[in-house]
Amino acid sequence: MYDMTIVLRTDGGKCLYEQIYEYIKSEIKDGKLLAGERLPSTRSLAEYLQVARSTVEYAYDQLLSEGYIESVPCRGYFVCTVEELFRMEEAKPREADRSERGEEAAERDSVRWSYHFSPHEIDMSGFPFGVWKKITKNILNSGNSELFARGEAQGDSNLRETISRYLHSSRGVNCRPEQIIVGAGNDYLLMLLEKILGRHVRIAMENPTYKRTYRIFKSFAYDIVTVDMDESGMRPDCLTGANVSAAYVMPSHQFPMGIVMPIGRRMELLKWAAGGEDRYLIEDDYDSEFRYYGKPIPALQASDKSGKVIYIGTFSKAIAPAIRISFMVLPQTLLERYRRNCSFYSCTVSRIDQRILNEFIRDGYFERHLNKMRKIYRAKQELLLRCLEPFKKKFEISGESTGLHLILTSLGDVTEEELLEQAGREGVKVYGLSESMVEEKKERDRFCALSSPGRRATVLLGFGGLSQEQIIEGMKRLQKAWL
Fold first, then answer.
1. Which residues, 6 or more positions from 333, have their beta carbon under 8 angstroms from its beta carbon?
2. Is the separation of the CB atoms in 313 and 180 below 8 Å?
3. How many CB atoms lie within 10 A of CB 9?
């Protein structure tokens, strides 16, 4: 639980509850309070700050209404997962912009969302708290002092062995435990990958793509080129002309378009990678567990015979954001480079957390949890699809096969901004495709751009973090807004 070191002032113009609200909001936006982190109860925080409990309740109510925190019955208040959380300075409305954008646009910035169709949220109601608590208690009661000693740089060998077996059985990934590196989140693993591949790598990314990864790569001084997609994903014929040495792809479920890359296209990408000594594919397999129709799709790495795929996955989406345990599988050539240049970096995941996760997977709890969550998410998706029936005259619906969001593409002349505005007036937050578009590149840095009269307005509807009741009510409001 996060300790609140709030200094309240009684000599200013702001009331106490507003100071508490602004402090917590700032901590969340600055990344000091992380997604899934539990806040103090209203009673304990009121006692600590020596204020009335109602003062803290007013502050929490405001944070709840704005979507910064959520209330979980019988458990307390937790920080929500809100992508980017407007941390980028350019996303903040400036006073000088207010007249240019108009009063209506300025008011839209302060909308209190009643229904948040975020493609990044997951359902925590199915989390096996009892099992997790039991495993944790048994580990801590075992008196194993070894858990408090420095561990292996790549992560504990037992966990890497378990991950290796799980990846082979569930995703077809072929790897030995020594090829796996465990880290606290994909951000850390990507930063480690920069040390392995080197600086100033020229890398291709799909457009649109996962914007957070794009920003991380850009912070490395990578030379990023964008390659537009067709219905099968990234076009390998564009990579040679782009003169890149790496390509970042999400073949099992491209974000945000939801494309599942067919085997033919995968083999073309592998052929491209095998055609150069220092070419690699970075496969981000972020939510492959949630496939609702047909058989599971093997990872791209499962077809790699030349050691050209860097495979990255995470347990945050499948279990909980707070788990913060991800893994990277390196091909042999890069593993040798890692050992030579980067093996002195310590593992960023606590050995206790590694042990808990190892037993959670090894003893079958993880598979049972996934089966349960697939049923929950499939029921939500089917409900959302039923609610979308009236929308089919005005929208094309896609992305049903896997993942935690659907894609709506307008068949009319409405703009994305208009769709977001109309939804916002009904208290509903949806995400426009433009939020995932890579910033405009110079013509020489954009390859194989698809010729089209213009991209139609497209929005993402995430359903993972909403209850069925919220989906129904939120869709009623969208129907009122858009139809």
1. 307
2. no
3. 9
CATH of 368-482, one of 3.90.1150.10, 3.10.20.740, 3.30.1330.40, 3.90.1170.40: 3.90.1150.10
Whether a cis peptide bond, with omega within 30° of 0, leads into 208 is: yes
* Spatial distance between the Cα atoms of 336 and 349, rounded to a whole number of angstroms: 22
Stated pTM of the model: 0.75
pLDDT confidence of residue 448 = 63
Q: Pick from 241, 212, 214: which is nearest to 87 by CA?
A: 212
The model's confidence at residue 280, banded by pLDDT at 50, 70 and 90, is very high
pLDDT digits (tens, 9 = 90+) for 456-471: 999 999 999 999 999 9
Q: Pick from 163, 171, 167: which is nearest to 357 by CA?
A: 163
Span of 7-16, 34-43, 263-272 with lowest mean pLDDT: 7-16
CA distances from 161 to 155, 178, 358 (A): 10, 8, 9
Q: Taking the CA of residue 374 as centre, how many other CA atoms within 13 Å lie in the half-sphere pointing to its CB? A: 16
Q: What is the mean predicted confidence (pLDDT) over 145-165?
A: 92
* Three-state DSSP state, 201: coil
